[in-house]
Amino acid sequence: MCGIVxxxxxxxCVRVLVDGLKRLDYRxxxxxxxxxxxxxxxxxxxxxxKLSNLINSVDLNTKSNIGIGHTRxxxxxxxxxxxxxxxxxxxxxxxxxGIIENYDEIKKDLIKKGYRFVSETDTEVISALLDYxxxxxxxxxxxxxxxxxxxxxxxxxxxxxxxxxxxxxxxKKNSPLIIGVCDGKNFIASDVPAILNKTxxxxxxxxxxxxxxxxxxxxxxxxxxxxxFVVKEFEYDDLSIDKHGYEHFMLKEINEQPEVFKKxxxxxxxxxxxxxxxxxxxxxxxxxxxxxxxGSATHAGLIGKQMIEKYANTEVNVETxxxxxxxxxxxxxxxxxIVISQSGETADTLEALKIAKENGNDTLGIINxxxxxxxxxxxxxxxxxxxxxxxxxxxxAYSAQVAMLSLxxxxxxxxxxxxxxxxxxxxxxxxxxxxxYMQELLNDRELYKKIANDIKCYNDVFFIGREVDxxxxxxxxxxxxxxxxxxxxxxxxxxxxxxxxxxxxxxxxVVAIVTDDSVAPKTISNIKEVKSRGAYVICVTNKxxxxxxxxxxxxxxxxxxxxxxxxxxxVIPLQLISYELAKIKGxxxxxxxxLAKSVTVE
Length: 602
Ligand code: F6R
Known about the structure:
This protein is α/β, with parallel strands linked by helices. It contains 18 helices and 25 strands. The strands form four sheets. The chain has an eight-stranded antiparallel β-sheet, covered by helices on one side. The chain has a seven-stranded antiparallel β-sheet with strand order 5-6-7-8-12-13-14. Helix 7 packs parallel to helix 13 and helix 7 packs antiparallel against helix 14. Fructose -6-phosphate binds next to helix 9 and helix 16.
């Protein structure tokens, strides 16, 4: 991981590479580097830390027409200059995203053959292997193809070779890579935004594809054979990756949620249920559902479980993809597997999907990135319409996932005839009102700032709730941890007294979520238990009859809508409290340390 860009053409290559890396900067990284040919000589420049360190070390006016660049998120070896990409061995210089699982074995073998390594990375093993294979067979394309037989794991590679200074080579397996196409110049990149100011035309590489790219020609091969390929047009424009005056992408994306809700639900629910009944696949044939995802997408799945079980009376189990992969899955024949992913590239989620397919189960992807690997691999796809999400911490994509799962719950409920007409009417009205309600919550910044100030001196924060509110608590806690670096725990409210309540001291912040009427009295009892032990309670609730109660110190009131959509309101204060706290603490909000936007390693 994390970002690759490569260029061949008449423009100033160094500038194109640096610009491309800047545009991939949102994915998170800890070192960066570029390699380019200048007057026939290869130059490699790499620096630890921010891209600005690299930019200070390069001469942006250098004449070059071909090169590769990389931002690295360390996996094998420290985040230092030696381990930063590109890596060069003999005649081959490469950048790599992914992980080579058998690198140690290959490395030992290459050491016996006389190769010496200067980095601790798995990547340098690939450049050395290429060089070794090339000594046996002087055909660049053939030796690149041969990597597919030697390497285990995931790899998207940008390759240049001293023996062919006009050509960019690439190879990919289990890690995303696209080729950007334009007149008289071509690109490679791990994601289209890297080159979106140069071209909107791109080609998606399939696993084991390798390509030979010159300024005027793109040729793609697979297993020794030349392939036909389709050039696509990226649907977002360059403006969608602009902050539009917001201080951070995260704030912009939180504020986009009313619009995202409309875009995600409009095709299915507008004035009637027609779209919902006609455009969604029929899920009634499945006896049960397994949802598999990572991080916030799992939290969205937990909300989906509550909704589908409650409204459609269908059993749903939610699993973390990185665990699901390695256990006995006990998938039933009539079980639908839903994978949820913003990027559509998360390695563990993709592998979980493959397991479900191999087992013969039907699969549905709830995906944001159109045409991503998971979207292509899943049998059925429902796209969330969140648009491009840049901040590493997901907000609008998460709520679009929740909205989509609520639509699935409603669709199943209708088809199973489990919902009455009055409730349907109420839901249709709520769907219309929801964007305005969201906006009201978004406007309450002063309250979130006050809460953030009240809790800023505490190192530990608890989030509690029951049922759907517990699922929300988990998302609230994750947001707080990842962007404000404040330790927090999410607890099922009824579990506190089984141990954790011993950690509650005078002033300990506890964010309690109370939106689910069926369990609200029980949660309120749990809140009273922590309050009487000194907790500073922030209650996020849709209850209207608690104004004069004294079990909370601060109250965030959210409008009351049908349960199906209530989480979409409740999550907004949680996102914004985390945002304000991160801002007060001076954290890197859009790119929290150690995190990457697209987790393409297992
Ligand atoms: C948290 C966050 C991550 C992602 C997770 C899955 O804010 O963004 O937990 O939700 O890495 O990513 P996708 O949805 O791209 O599969």
